[in-house]
Design a protein that fits this description.
about 450 residues, alpha/beta, N-(1-d-carboxylethyl)-l-norvaline Dehydrogenase, domain 2, 3 domains, 14 strands, binds nicotinamide-adenine-dinucleotide, binds uridine-5'-diphosphate-glucose, EC 1.1.1.22
């Protein structure tokens, strides 16, 4: 089939390359000419394992092309995927839908023959119904310009794997256009033939599956981080608590790692947007717990700052602090709402001299926080440090030799904000090792 993928960021670039891998002819569309130039050259303008290889393969095969022209997109595509951002609004907790609206406004006037627009962005419930009307009103073909909603569940760092082997597919089909289901079944035929579970539903359910999935994941992380707070107050060990919980198959061990909490371009803004939308619908009381999920999450960052001050004899002023990690999670260069950089920035504002190192997110971090210092490696960042903070659990940090790092620092003190280092090895090498929720 001939598909377009509109918005070629973390989600869209992955979706475009994976749709080409499934055998479709794909045209990626973005408003940023630099991004399109990079993608045309087979270069992914961000870090996502395995994506560049897949992109280059299909740019070379001719099955994957890129453009900035909506007219070209409309002329080319039978099915158009909308993958633009839905960040938190500047002026409040709700989702900023201006990019989602702009896709309709830019594409619709060129739709002179029947077409299907499929929303993949994460949106507040009720958005799809509104967009379907807007699309039909603006398109020359009227109601033959149909909308469907197909939320995306991929994780950064595993984006290609998650797109080619998803846990499930969800199709939100508009009442007025039941034939959209057949189009989506055709797009995803290889995945459905491989046995991927499919849920076909209406617009509001499809939108809510996505926001409730992220709310559940955020809740699970904040649950274990709340237990970490209680562990800190009682002398218990959250790592062992989490391990013991995980053997109960009803609970499971995934998303039960206590630490500095969740960040990124999804969970934090999605729970806030969910709350804001529920308030608008008069259902805010049902989601009140999500406010607490958000607060527990942010309190973990405060806890690291307090612990850092405590380890630096009560003052951060003039202390040299190494921060290992800038990305919001390993295997990504994404720094959106990164706990590591938020903590680094706060420590610096409190007078510390902070030096950051991350294997992949340095360029993004430098652009966003130009006042921070950056080093070329983990050891260089730790040079003469009074304290080391391990805030993003890259494999590279776990492989470090604690004895070698000890040679570099001024004081052998480390806070493991991800409970991911071998605490025994660090202590044996003479370090004061502290972790969140552990004695
Ligand atoms: N990143 C993820 O892991 C992930 C996973 C599932 C769902 N989502 C959701 O997908 C959406 C996109 O997220 P992202 O992380 O890829 O964002 P992103 O910021 O990385 O990408 C958005 C892209 O859209 C482009 N764009 C903006 N306005 C445009 C327009 N009018 N026309 C064409 N392109 C335009 C931007 O230039 C950018 O390249 C969000 O709703 C997000 O919540 C993201
Ligand atoms: O036990 C855990 C698991 C994760 N995290 C943190 O939680 C955040 C989010 O991690 P993850 O969910 O793996 O990353 P994302 O790529 O943001 O993916 C989430 O957000 C996407 C966008 O909506 C969804 O598609 C995915 O299903 C959902 O997992 C990161 O900061 C992690 O460090 C923890 O603190 N403890």
């Amino acid at each position: 089939m001939r598909l377009t993928v509109i918005g070629t960021g973390y989600l869209g670039a992955t979706h475009a390359a994976c749709m080409a891998e499934l055998g479709h002819e794909v045209l990626g569309v973005d408003v940023e000419p630099d991004k399109i130039a990079a993608l045309r050259a087979g270069r992914v303008p961000f870090y996502e394992p395995g994506l560049e290889e897949l992109l280059a393969k299909h740019v070379a095969s001719g099955r994957l092309r890129f453009t900035t022209s909506y007219q070209e997109a409309a002329e080319f595509g039978e099915v158009h995927f909308s993958c633009v951002g839905t960040p938190q609004r500047q002026d409040g907790p709700g989702a900023d839908l201006r990019y989602v609206d702009a896709v309709i406004d830019s594409l619709a006037p060129y739709l002179t023959r029947p077409a299907l627009l499929v929303g993949k962005s994460t949106v507040p419930v009720g958005t799809a119904a509104r967009l379907a009307e807007r699309l039909a009103a603006l398109a020359p073909v009227g109601a033959e310009a149909r909308l469907a909603w197909n939320p995306e569940f991929l994780r950064e760092g595993f984006a290609v794997e998650d797109t080619l082997r998803p846990d499930r597919l969800v199709f939100g089909i508009g009442e007025a256009a039941p034939e959209s289901e057949a189009d989506l079944r055709a797009v995803y035929a290889p995945l459905l033939e491989a046995g991927t579970p499919l849920v076909v539903t209406d617009f509001p359910t499809a939108e809510l599956v996505k926001t409730s999935a992220n709310a559940f994941l955020a809740t699970k992380i904040s649950f274990i981080n709340a237990m970490a707070e209680v562990c800190e107050a009682s002398g218990a060990d959250v790592a062992l608590l989490s391990k013991a919980l995980s053997f109960d198959t009803r609970i499971g061990g995934r998303f039960l790692n206590a630490g500095v909490g969740f960040g990124g371009g999804c969970l934090p803004k999605d729970i806030r947007a969910f709350l804001a939308r529920a308030d608008e619908l008069g259902a805010g009381q049902a989601l009140g717990f999500l406010r607490e999920v958000d607060s527990i999450n942010l309190r973990r960052r405060d806890r690291v700052v307090d612990l850092a001050r405590e380890l630096c004899e009560g003052t951060l002023s003039g202390r040299r602090i190494a921060v290992w990690g800038a990305a919001f999670k390993p295997d990504s260069d994404d720094i959106r709402d990164s706990p590591a950089l938020d903590i680094a920035d706060r420590l610096q504002r409190l007078g510390a001299e902070v030096c950051v190192y991350d294997p992949k997110a340095m360029d993004n971090a430098r652009k966003r926080f130009p006042a921070l210092d950056f080093a070329t490696g983990a050891l260089a960042a730790a040079q003469d440090a009074d304290l080391v903070l391990h805030l993003t659990e890259w494999k590279e940090f776990r492989a470090l030799d604690p004895a070698a790092v000890r040679e570099a620092v001024a004081h052998a003190r480390i806070i493991d904000g991800r409970n991911a280092l071998d605490d025994g090895a660090w202590r044996a090498a003479g370090w004061t090792y502290r972790a969140l929720g552990r004695p």
